[in-house]
Amino acid sequence: MSVGASTVREDRLGALAPRLFLGGGILGVAGLGSSVLIGAVGGAWDRLLFSYLAAFIFVLTVSLGALWFTLVQHMTRAGWSVVLRRLSEAIATNLTWLGVAFAPIAILVMLGKGELLYHWADTSVYDAGSEHFDEVLTKKHVFFTPTFWTIRAVFYFAVWGAATRMLFGQSVAQDASGDVSHTHRMQRYSPLFMVLYALTQTLAVVDWVMSLEPLWFSTMYGVYFFAASLCGFFSVLCVSLWLLQRSGRMQDVVTREHYQDAGKLLFGFGIVFWAYIAFSQYMLIWYANIPEETGWYITRQLGGWRMVSALLLFGHFCVPFVLLISKHTKRAKGVLAVIAGWMLFMHYIDVYWLVMPRIPADLLAQSETYRQLIDSIQESGNDLGFHPHVLDLTCLVGLGGVAIALTARRLGGCALIPIGDPRLSESITFENM
Amino acid sequence: MEATPIDNTFEDPGQRAPLVLNHNDFTSVTTDICRASESPRPPRAWYIAFAISAALASLFFLLIFYLFITGVGIWGNHSPTMWGFPIVNFVFWIGIGHAGTLISAILFLFRQKWRTAINRFAEAMTIFAVVCAGTFPVIHVGRVWVVYWLFPIPNQMELWPQFRSPLLWDVFAVSTYFTVSLLFWYVGMIPDLATFRDRAATKTRAIIYGLLALGWTGSNRHWHRYERAYLLLAALATPLVLSVHSVVSFDFAVAQLPGWHSTIFPPYFVAGAIFGGFAMVVTLAVPSRQLWGLKDFITMRHLENMNKIILLTGSIVGYAYVSEFFIAWYSGATYEGFAFINRAFGQHAWAYWLMLFCNVVAPQLFWFKRFRRSIPVMYFVVMCVNVGMWFERFVIVISLEQDFLPSSWGYFAPTWVDLMMLVGSMGLFLMLFLLFIRYLPVIAMAELKAVMPQADPHTSGEHDTPAGQNREVV
Description:
The structure holds two protein chains of two kinds.
Chain A: H1 5-9, H2 16-42, H3 45-75, H4 82-92, H5 94-110, H6 135-139, H7 146-177, H8 180-208, H9 221-246, H10 256-288, H11 291-299, H12 305-324, H13 327-331, H14 333-355, H15 361-366, H16 370-380, H17 390-412, H18 424-428
Chain B: H1 26-38, H2 44-70, H3 84-109, H4 119-140, H5 166-199, H6 203-212, H7 220-253, H8 265-291, H9 300-330, H10 334-345, H11 349-361, H12 369-372, H13 375-398, H14 416-439, H15 445-450
Helix pairs in contact in B: 2-14, 3-4, 3-7, 3-8, 3-13, 4-5, 4-14, 5-6, 5-7, 7-8, 8-9, 8-13, 10-11, 11-13
């Protein structure tokens, strides 16, 4: 297939950009506005915080997955993926405004009201005279001081912002100049950013999600989130490729071959690697059966969470595994997009399953053993945080809308593929077989 | 030979570097690679290395005999460090046995064409490393004459293995891995064995390689079947690479012991295995390419790529060390904290810091291109990694010497038999490897030819190809 430089050059979001910006913006404002309204009117402030955190983590993981993908393409000097890279660069730039989206949570913690979300932010747990005193938590008090916690968050966003700015900026600059020095620069800095990525991604999910249950711990946690974020990103990639092609864009440059490879990555990382990590973590905790660790899973095996866990097992692994193992489903663009759409939904369920479940502190305090705890939970009829709320939806729509609006705005200002990349022709002509 | 040698160390994003240097064509590739096996005598260095490694291998077998007639008391193992050297050696060798299938299968699936020069090597290394690895648990069972009880064989005493034990999972994981790796290695070698057969100068060679080549004629149909089988085996081998070392990590991680029970163990062990395995490939590739004159095929670029993977996996291992330490503190668990403080500052602190230096600090030299391309620096680093990865397992295994019961605390010290058996297993490994590079095709000739410019229909430049695709391998 021969593709003229001019047809590639004209491939832009064009008129779609302002429409997506407007549509996403309306969704964003409506979603976030109604969330605040429901929170204020319904008095569901703490629920709002959890719903908001789940939606935030969902958008964050997708963007982090995009950043990882972009970095890896430069580290491996990849050729096949060049035509997909602009999308991942643009999705990764969401990490800049997500810092603003995180601000309400950080301000809450800094103002000393963090205990609505994080048990460790409740200062009475460190007070030996208080009934909430928790000796184990005092050991990590230094890690959970609001100032140190916020400084860390600022550091994460600074790193992510610098990385995405560099990658997006260099790549767009190359569109105009076609200068290979941009490629050299991106290849030079990507490994360094990858080291920082591993550090910040791990600590961020420990700080923001694992610490929701501050007594629980798992060394696998960062890796689990890494796998989950790849699932989120590759799903978004497959879906947005399909939508863009249906709108008549990227017609001649993105072929079935690219779909197949994106599908392979979704299959390999988002489904199989995710399941490997999830299984390993579960199996080791189940097998050793140490109460400090099992509580986290017990919560997720009781009440409504039981069905959510089963849904993840089958919906996030078993069924998509069978569906995507064949090259035919990966090469059928529409089929792949539908499966990827399902995986994106599953990724949200995964995040929801990580963020939402909780055991009420009073039940925890009353129980001596886990057996007692389970019994008292069942007696009290507590739902352990499993009560899907309209706020879950409004927050997701709100942050998702903002993400769509700002990604479209970012993409609107440049070509849809990195037209100046020296490996572009290799990518366009690449074949799997 | 033309005057201008082809350079493949350039960094030009618009071009793919050639993987074979110095204007080799298909004939010269065949001749150069077959020479290692066809020359009447190998170089003197080969004889010296073979004599030493065969002597050490003999020592290994003698010591195994001594062990059988005496009992495992001749080792340093004691309560509470029940596992001692045998399990350290087992995990060390099984880790090395990983890179082979990784290079072949995973790099194949990721379309990394530079794998063709080193995959045969690495696969052979896998087989020999797994042989060494498998020996240790077998001789460690004590009553070795009933070792077949490890398998679920129906018997009148109604003895049945404990299926809940990860040690039993090891039996299945390792034997499956060995079988698939052997098949993968052998199937990949068939076209090259046929080349050996066709070029055989003696009757013996013709018969032996003829039998091994399974009647390969190179017909279209043969190639078709071969390619399919190879792809399927690669796809099968990939989850196996991950599963074997994950199961090995379960040996430790399912326990409730501080320092052993950590959820990151499975991917951490897999990364560590790839790390140690690649270091061993470089360790073997550097002298072999010198010895057999293979520098046109195993180029500096190949070595540099491997060094990058060593840097990457070494950093992943470093990530795991740090997260273990962090979570040991974060968990607030007294015993976990003690185990790690003890690791870093206890009686075996020297082993811990040695491990950390070898596995995490030394590979950082590979951030610099100059060091990635320097044979002495590269050799220093991979030797560090070989040592460091052995000590990693040592540090984990002997952390039990200070368990929950202070009255049983002690200092684990190996006996001379422990040490000699480790050295002996290295001898066995090297001996098998030396036999391989003398008698079997050391580089996958057929695959190498497929990534040469001559295999590309556009190579002559007659067609109107997009920029940057003319000469190089795409």
